[in-house]
């Protein structure tokens, strides 16, 4: 994969720290705004990125780029992804994918017409620990309760209270805790349990944006409570509870460093299967294989998963308006 990166924000800095752990990845280019070009140049020098652009069209025209990693504010995803596809580039788009299911379906149709791959970058469903948890569900089944928690006091929350609004707290830029943090819980719940029958979101609203909230998902014989917060502090713990036992883990639902299984007979074991220390390494290793092999079957499966997540998000937003 010859990767062109669009964006130079926090997530790009984070990704580049683990880029050397991704097999068969070439950092071909980075593009950012003219205002941030020096940041991009510094990143290019530090991580040996071949080209630096301050105009995305130049990156789209670069023949040495076959895949674009879209890491810009949420509200810009659709436009950037569409232009990348129209220029014949494969696309890795940061979560959340785009604003609506209709936009996602349009982009997928365009990608198919241009014979390129499009995938959503979401860490947890590519982690080895996630896959192990999914396999272990039968050990505690039938499952009736799940509580997934991603609480992370935002480094931008204090500024938000003072009136300085970053994109992650800006409703006009598709910010908020549902889109920024609870989306990890949704991906995890959909991956483990499938599409829910009913969705209801209970947000804590400040200055017109959800700074924390609880999302309830109803399944035929199970209730899932998805908790996320950017305005509270705790070490979060997530539980999956069944008749034969429970699975639980501490920390971010986007990382899942380790997990434990506690059975009703008293047996308890802890497990660590993740191959990499950095949460983004597994997903990008998967993306390289999918794109380099033009594995449309796996890409389509990931797309179907993303569409289900987007449908849950749409229902969650609609439920607040009732």
Description:
37% of the residues lie in helices and 26% in strands. It is an alpha/beta fold and 322 residues long. The chain folds into 2 domains: 2-120, Rossmann fold (3-Layer(aba) Sandwich); 125-279, Dihydrodipicolinate Reductase, domain 2. An 8-stranded mixed beta sheet has the order 8-9-10-7-11-12-13-14, with helices on one face. The chain is globular. It starts with a strand and ends with a helix.
Please report the distance between the alpha carbons of the first and last residues. Answer: 46 Å
Amount of beta strand: 25-35%
C-alpha geometry: globular
SS content category: alpha/beta
Please compute the radius of gyration using only Cα atoms. 20 Å
Query: Given this structure, which CATH class of the largest domain is correct?
Result: Alpha Beta
Number of helices: 10
**CATH H-level superfamily of the largest domain:** Dihydrodipicolinate Reductase, domain 2
Report low-confidence residues grouped into runs of 5 or more: none
Number of domains: 2
What is the N-to-C order of secondary-structure elements (H for helix, E for strand)?
A: EHEHEHEHEHEHEHHEEEEEEEHH
Helical percentage: 25-40%
Give the CATH architecture of the largest domain. 2-Layer Sandwich
- Here the CATH topology of the largest domain equals Dihydrodipicolinate Reductase, domain 2
């Amino acid at each position: 994969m010859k990767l062109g990166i669009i964006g130079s924000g926090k997530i790009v800095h984070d990704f580049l720290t683990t880029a050397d752990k991704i097999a068969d990845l070439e950092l071909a280019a980075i593009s950012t705004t003219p205002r941030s070009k020096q940041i991009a140049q510094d990143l290019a020098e530090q991580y040996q990125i071949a080209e630096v652009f301050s105009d995305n069209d130049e990156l789209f025209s670069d023949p040495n780029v076959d895949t674009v990693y879209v890491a810009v504010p949420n509200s810009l995803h659709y436009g950037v992804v569409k232009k990348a596809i129209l220029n014949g580039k494969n696309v890795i788009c940061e979560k959340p994918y785009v604003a609506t299911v209709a936009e996602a379906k349009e982009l997928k149709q365009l990608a198919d017409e241009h014979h390129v791959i499009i995938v959503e970058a979401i860490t947890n469903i590519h982690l080895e620990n996630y896959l192990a948890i999914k396999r272990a569900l039968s050990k505690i089944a039938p499952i009736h309760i799940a509580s997934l928690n991603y609480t992370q006091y935002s480094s931008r929350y204090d500024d938000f209270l003072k009136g300085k609004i970053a994109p992650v707290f800006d409703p006009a830029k598709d910010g908020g805790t549902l889109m920024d943090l609870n989306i990890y819980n949704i991906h995890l719940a959909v991956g483990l349990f499938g599409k829910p029958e009913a969705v209801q979101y209970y947000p804590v609203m400040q200055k017109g944006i959800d700074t924390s909230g609880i999302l309830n998902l109803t399944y035929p014989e199970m209730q899932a409570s998805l908790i996320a917060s950017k305005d509270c502090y705790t070490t979060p713990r997530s539980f999956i509870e069944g008749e034969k036992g429970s699975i639980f883990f501490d920390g971010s639902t986007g990382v899942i460093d380790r997990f434990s299984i506690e059975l009703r007979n008293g047996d308890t074991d802890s497990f660590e299967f993740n191959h990499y220390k950095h949460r983004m390494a597994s997903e990008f290793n998967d993306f390289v294989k999918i794109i380099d092999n033009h594995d449309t079957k796996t890409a389509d499966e990931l797309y179907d998963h993303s569409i289900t997540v987007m449908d849950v998000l749409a229902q969650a937003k609609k439920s607040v308006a009732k």
